[in-house]
Specification:
With 258 residues, the protein is mainly β. The chain is built from no helices and 32 strands. It is elongated, with a radius of gyration of 19 Å.
């Protein structure tokens, strides 16, 4: 705990459960860190790096921290060789106007099982063979994005933000929850399929919802699948097809393009 300054861990940390508390920033970005237990924090901003899995408990962060090298401010969690798991409720915000939250893993999975409230853009990305799953409820004031390269993306919870994006390059998207965006909502896969048994809804005045398959995958609507958009909806498919309910794309200005 620090009451008057930020906390910076210069050397590698190998600890079980840990709780950080400071009104300022926390920096624990040594690539050899090993947080074996649950990491919890109440702070101004936070950067965590772990060489293996990382499990987040209650995180309350409100601040800004230069991280990306592009003049933007970030709160970030990086797992080099393991998973990122959020099991508890978390509130993460950035006071910077360009603030964003990055959850990144190079070889593991990302699982958001708790409810998360975010102020600022949120990007959750896995690089190699990692799956991304959401079973909690997520509220973001700006953009919320789930991006996998080789793995699948599963959304069983409820996500609401200004812009919402879910994509995977080589995997499939399994959609049983709801993805709502005030502006634009996009669900896409380059070479997999989209299995829609939930609601994708662009509910704002200019809201537009899109399902996009760039490769050989299909769009499969279940009995509960629905694509909605106040301004319009679209399904773009390169080589696959659309299966399921004919009423799943029922809003005005809807189209199917192959």
């Amino acid at each position: 705990e620090s009451k008057n300054g930020y906390i910076q861990m210069l050397g590698p940390m190998k600890v079980n459960d840990v709780y950080f508390k400071t009104p300022y920033a926390i920096v624990a970005d040594n690539p050899n860190n090993d947080f074996a237990g649950v990491v919890s924090a109440k702070c101004g901003a936070i950067v965590l790096t772990d060489n293996n899995d990382i499990s987040l408990g209650n995180i309350s962060a409100n601040g800004a921290l230069a991280y990306t090298g592009e003049g933007k401010e970030s709160i970030s969690v990086l797992s080099l060789n393991g998973d990122i798991t959020i099991n508890s409720d978390a509130t993460i915000s950035s006071s910077h106007k360009n603030g964003r939250v990055d959850l990144m893993t190079t070889t593991g999975n990302i699982a958001i099982n708790g409810d998360v409230t975010c102020v600022g853009d949120v990007f959750a990305s896995s690089s190699v063979n990692g799956d991304i799953s959401v079973s909690g409820d997520i509220v973001s004031e700006k953009c919320f994005a789930l991006m996998a390269v080789d793995g699948d993306v599963s959304v069983d919870g409820r996500v609401q933000s200004y812009d919402s994006f879910v994509s995977t390059s080589k995997g499939s998207v399994f959609f049983n929850g709801s993805l709502k965006g005030e502006n634009n909502v996009m669900v896409g896969s380059s070479n997999g399929s989209i299995y829609m048994n939930g609601i994708v809804d662009a509910f704002g005045t200019d809201g537009y919802a899109l399902l996009n398959i760039e490769g050989d995958g299909d769009v499969v609507f279940g009995t509960e699948g629905l694509l909605k958009g106040t301004h319009g909806v679209g399904v773009l498919i390169e080589n696959g097809d659309v299966f399921g309910s004919s009423t799943a794309v029922s809003e005005k200005n809807g189209f199917l393009s192959k």
